[in-house]
Predict the structure of NADPH:quinone oxidoreductase.
Amino acid sequence: MHAWLCEQTTGPQDLQWKALPTAQPGPREVRVAVHCASLNFPDLLITHGKYQVKPPLPFVPGLEFSGVIDAVGAEVSHLRMGQRVASFGGMGAFATEVCVSADKVLPIPDAMTFEDAAAFICTYATTHHGLIDRAALRAGETVLVLGAAGGVGTAAIQIAKAAGARVIAAASTDEKCELTRRLGADEAINYSREDLRERLKVLTEGRGPDVVYDPVGGDLAEPVFRSIAWRGRYLVIGFAQGGIPSLPLNLALLKGASIVGVFWGDFARREPQAAVAALVELTRWYVERRIKPVLDQVLPMSQLKQGYERMASRKIQGKLVLSNDL
């Protein structure tokens, strides 16, 4: 097998494509021939040693992939050779093969392409957990999606619309705003040239959004939280802008609002039955064509470094996928 090896946490430019011994799955693992893998923001952080998980060196990065099972551990009974699957939350996706714990593997339907499957679990499971579970989103409510043209942002637009909500998308360029409208956003705000608070007042007639979906953090958080509706729910998804904001807690008191953490990985570990049920529903929505990953580009696995460069420059719209089939 071959894999992109991280031997020092100095950034993705120092990753090396190397031949490695073919791994054998442990008793509770399966080995998957990787067809596609997707880039997620933690994949960038981990090569700099800045992610919350710091695997020992050397390691093969890549959290999310799709492919076909080509070996099954002795204690695995619910998966089989030749099965089409996707996985998120392990390590080693930027390779031709990877061994992964069987409980991190999701069988995928024939209708789902490997490209879509590689871009599916992280963004849609996180967003479903946030909007449907943690925020208890109701039909008719208004959702503000920050970073709306990114991977989780595009998923949030689709899932909120599937739940019957009104969606206001916020993004940094007119091009990204146009993408959000094509995905079904009712309104779009270019926050690089519009006053976000003032525009929200106009679009919500002074009431504010019921739910804020925030994977961005940074200096957008406080003005948006000041705009939230009575009994609003502010979903903390991540900090793509880099800064972790400090919100004045008196604002939560004055608005009767909730600050809600969304950590799908630990949710899946602590509440596996609920997490599986959500993935089953999401897979059904995909087959029904109610949701579909937005693919920025599909590049050959050999061009992983170019993919990292595109992510670092914040040019990606939706998800960028690497393919071993190209």
